[in-house]
Design a protein that fits this description.
alpha/beta
Length: about 90
Amino acid sequence: MKRRGVEAFSARDIGKLGLTDEEQIKVATKKQAIIFTHDVDFLRIAIHKQHPGIIYVHQQKLTIGECIRRLKAIAETKSLEEMRNRIIFL
């Protein structure tokens, strides 16, 4: 995503890899960062919590290239405000 001009980071990039899913949502909320995941647990948590937005893809549904194309399209067409508390399924 970074190579395509979209600001992106992973939990590993920011030293948060060992956090629980709920803690990851808190970090994303603080950073105003949308979560991209294949972990269905985020979907269950997101139903009951405020969050900056979640983009979910089933791990075996799309190729990495197709995920990147779709993520870039979302980044170009949706604002942070439009994504707030929304879940998008790729």
